[in-house]
Amino acid sequence: MGLIAAFGAPIFLPFMTTQIAFLWMMVVFALCWDIMGGQMGYNSFGNIFFFGIGAYVCAVIQRDSGLDWYVAFFLGFGAAAILGVLCAAILGAGILGLRGQYFAICTLGLGIAGGEIASGWDYIGAGSGLSPPLFPGALGMREMFFNYLFLTLALVCFFTLKRVYSGRFGLAINAIRDDEDKAEAMGLRTTRYKIVAWCISAFFVAMCGAAAGNMIGFIDPRDVAFAGVTFGVWMVLMAILGGKGTLWGPVLGALVFHITQELFWTYLLGWQRVALGLLIVVIVVFFPTGILGWLRERRTMSTSGGSEQ
Amino acid sequence: MEGLSIFIEQPVRLLQIIVDGILVGSVFALSAYGLALVWGVMKIINIAQGEFVMLGGYVAILIADAGYSPLLGVPLAAMILFCVGWVLYRLVIFRVVDRDLFISILATFGLSILLQQLANQVFGADVRTAESGLVTMSFLDGNITISQIKLLSFFLAFALGGGLWLFLRSSQLGQAIRATAQNARAARIMGIDTNSVYAVTYGLNAAICGAAGALVAMTWVIHPYLGLTYTVRSFMIVVVAGLGNLMGVILAGLGLGTAENIAGFVLGAEYQAAFVFSLLVVILVWRNWRLGLQRRYLK
Amino acid sequence: MTALLEVRGVSKRFGGVVANANVSLNVPEGAIIGLIGPNGSGKTTLFSSIVGQHAIDSGSILFQGNEISKLRVSEIARSGLLRTFQQTRIYGQMDCMRNMLISTPDTSAGLLSMLSRHSAEEQEEAERLLDFVGLYEKRFLMAGDLSFGQQKLLEFAMALMNKPKILLLDEPTAGINPTLINGLIDRLKRANKEIGITLFVIEHNMRVIMNLADHIYCLAHGEILADGSPEAIKDDRRVIEAYLGAS
């Protein structure tokens, strides 16, 4: 049922196709953050780094390859994923050794550094940004194409994570979250699991970057590619809002957040970012377990009528 | 990287950059001191640190706009920001003090975004500065120039930091703060109202940052988005120096100012922010790796 | 019998405090060795040194003839040397079965094995061990919701699941209901005799350690005070004085 609604959405609401496409992208963002933060306990502020990498890699390949648009795009799309994973593996070797708040702030630095470095690098357009080649097709076709691309990405991501969480990997990253020292003391190769988790995250997020760069049509180093204070923080927020550490939590959180954000933008305009900052504080302080957590608490409170000890 | 060759041909340029770096580094050290204070007492990493600096800067700018000397901004920003910090504690921060450290990071991050965007809406995104009306002095046949305001700001930064240090050492409230930092539960048992202590501490931190911001407004520039860079600088300084090490904070602050200035010159001004954030990553990874050799990790 | 674990002249200090001073001992394969001493004598510190939780200042630690004092915790654990914690550590947000399943040896963590679901044999083994410690009925409860004593048993079962060659137990009976202690001693002995795990046990409960151990070392003020059979240690004047005199 849900799938039909998902696939049908842009047909019924053609004027909102871009927003719907972004919705699927947000779902991927939230899910990918949740592997690190919710399932593994490694709260990252820098996953946006891979988004930026993906956006630029794809755009550069599209710009320089001289091939047909579709070929160049899918080449760039694939390269984005590969490079994203490579970066995660190399950076992860050092950064994933950090714990808790040091990891969080280090990744914050990473995300913003990406934007700053990109702003100065002429090969990729420096501060003026980069524009991938225009989508060949009628007006409206572009949004449709990317909408279904993002939807596919979201579905693949969801089911990949579902499969991966049900195996040893899921148990391992949960163990790392619950007590990393204990996991190490039991012989678990924690470094390996941590890096693989970040690589999975980077894989999907980089592809999002590649696609988003083309859908938006313009890649600005600070506001689009390495948008640490917008997309970067939203990833965290959505997963927490829905309920971190679950599969459906991030999806739900992405949905609610995206709708809320669109409403903010429509009605508050300039003040939407202020409202967003406020929203972060409210969610973090009052609803740290998210919507799913809140529902679960309501349910246990209503079913356990008597005392139980 | 033509910058490097200039150093060899004209070493005096290097000296100028180092001097400027040390002067600006004093403000970094001040902000780092505040961060370390809140971290040590309340076990919170205040991501909104830079925003307090930014707001303090705007206080000085508003005063300058109103026709008064922005130097008045230093004490005024301190007082206003103290109130802001105190209120923020009573409204928000007290709810995240005893919880997961990540919650406090996320909450103060939210505050940071809130304040940043608020400033953007109210003051506009333009870069502003506050003219102090002081002159520039020159030394060594005009090869080294030091603006008086930067020199004054340097000494004021030390004065403010020293004042805070004295306050913490000798006043009764200061001792209550230090007692709470060492053992909050014991302090409570001894009758200290730790919640009030926390509120005052957070307010003091905001005040220190506000004063620092006023100094920045006069010696440099202010814009709504400079907050995060200051927060990251403060964090780096504290990580390098260690929480209880005031001398370390001072040295690291001056060192960071110098390093940044040199990097800005060698790599180009557009890469200065990139340098700061990349340095954060490098310092953390390197520090942790060193600890790892002794089977430890950054806690 | 060759010594499975050999500690030679290990010293460790924390700032100005000397926790271990020139400690040497042997744990032969298949034995149950006890480590006793008054509070603050450095027993847990020694354990932490052996498993790799912190660096030692001097000395050497040999496990199966190999030097392990510079290896990482997880490497040492994978080579067959495991420990349980005094404060009992388990994975609180997972149920008992999952705690057990993730405790299987992580020898081949290749990408494919990460995806694999746990085999039926592993599930059966987990159930068998949970039954061995008496937690079978509670196997789907969240580990964090168990009582302290039950968590201790879970931790023990998890350790067994990891198929160690030697298990370092830090006060296994502390906080356990006295009526259940005999059961625990029995299980420890069975683990040693039937499964063949060498045990190195820190204990405060004299009755337990005298009953359990083949050989006992006594630590006081960070140094080995005495060692010998339970009967010898029981009557050793120095040991008695160390306990009585300890503040």
Question: In summary, what is this structure?
Answer:
By secondary structure, chain B is mainly α. Chain B has helices spanning about 1-10, 10-40, 50-65, 75-90, 100-125, 150-170, 170-180, 185-190, 195-220, 225-240, 245-265, 270-295; strands at about 135-140, 145.
Topology of this structure?
The complex is a heterotrimer of chains A (309), B (299) and C (247).
Chain A: H1 2-12, H2 17-39, H3 48-65, H4 69-95, H5 100-120, H6 141-165, H7 168-185, H8 190-216, H9 221-225, H10 228-242, H11 248-268, H12 272-286, H13 290-303
Helix pairs in contact in A: 2-6, 2-8, 2-10, 2-11, 3-4, 3-5, 3-8, 4-8, 6-8, 7-8, 10-11, 10-13, 11-12
Chain B: H1 2-9, H2 11-42, H3 49-65, H4 73-91, H5 101-123, E1 136-139, E2 144-147, H6 148-170, H7 172-182, H8 184-189, H9 194-219, H10 227-241, H11 246-267, H12 272-293
Antiparallel strand pairs in B: 1-2
Helix pairs in contact in B: 1-2, 2-6, 2-9, 2-10, 2-11, 3-4, 3-5, 3-9, 3-10, 4-9, 6-7, 6-9, 7-9, 10-11, 10-12
Chain C: E1 3-14, E2 17-28, E3 32-36, H1 43-51, E4 58-63, E5 66-67, H2 73-78, E6 81-84, H3 96-101, H4 111-115, H5 120-132, H6 148-161, E7 166-170, H7 178-195, E8 198-202, H8 206-212, E9 215-220, E10 223-228, H9 230-235, H10 237-245
Parallel strand pairs in C: 3-8, 3-9, 6-7, 7-8
Antiparallel strand pairs in C: 1-2, 1-4, 4-5, 9-10
Plain-language structure description:
The complex is a heterotrimer of chains A (309), B (299) and C (247). Chain A is mostly helical and 309 residues long. Chain A has a domain at 21-232. Chain A contains 13 helices and no strands. The longest helix of chain A has 27 residues, at 69-95. The termini of chain A are far apart. The radius of gyration of chain B is 19 Å and the shape is globular. Chain B has a two-stranded antiparallel ribbon with strand order 1-2. Chain B is built from 12 helices and 2 strands; from the N terminus they run αααααββααααααα. The model of chain B has no long low-confidence stretch (mean pLDDT 89). In chain B, helix 3 packs across helix 9. With 299 residues, chain B is mostly helical. The two termini of chain B are 37 Å apart. With 247 residues, chain C is an alpha/beta fold. Chain C has a domain at 3-91 and 164-244: P-loop containing nucleotide triphosphate hydrolases (Rossmann fold), CATH 3.40.50.300. In chain C, 38% of the residues lie in helices and 26% in strands. Chain C has helices at residues 43-51, 73-78, 96-101, 111-115, 120-132, 148-161, 178-195, 206-212, 230-235, 237-245; strands at residues 3-14, 17-28, 32-36, 58-63, 66-67, 81-84, 166-170, 198-202, 215-220, 223-228. The longest helix of chain C is centred in the C-terminal third of the chain and has 18 residues, at 178-195. Chain C is globular and about 55 Å long. Chain C starts with a strand and ends with a helix. The model of chain C has no long low-confidence stretch (mean pLDDT 91). Chains in contact: A-B, A-C, B-C. The A-C interface holds A 163-164, 166-169, 171-172, 174-175, 177-179, 181-190, 192-193, 196, 245 and C 51, 53, 72-74, 77-78, 82-83, 85, 89-94, 98, 101-103, 105-106, 109, 111, 113-118, 158-159, 162.
